[in-house]
Amino acid sequence: MDDTQLIKAAWDVSTAMAKLNDLIWDLYEDDFIELFINPDPLDQLAYEVHQEEN
């Protein structure tokens, strides 16, 4: 069985995902950095509660 078409499709999807990632990063770069520096306190609390449960 020739997997050439499957490999090409996987390559195309991977390339599209990389392009989408770049577009998203370009659009929201400043917001991502701000969120990393100053995380949402509710998100942090939810994370801590989840960690305590495990």
Describe this structure in words.
- With 54 residues, this protein is an all-alpha fold.
- The chain is built from two helices and no strands.
- It has helices spanning 4-37, 41-53.
- The longest helix is centred in the middle third of the chain and has 34 residues, at 4-37.
- The mean pLDDT is 86.
Q: Concise description?
A:
By secondary structure, the protein is an all-alpha fold.
Furnish the topology, listing elements before pairings:
Layout: H1 4-37, H2 41-53
Order of helices and strands: HH
Shape: elongated
The helix-and-strand class reads: mainly alpha
Q: Beta fraction of the residues? A: under 5%
Helix % is: over 70%
Overview features:
54 residues, 87% helix, elongated, 2 helices
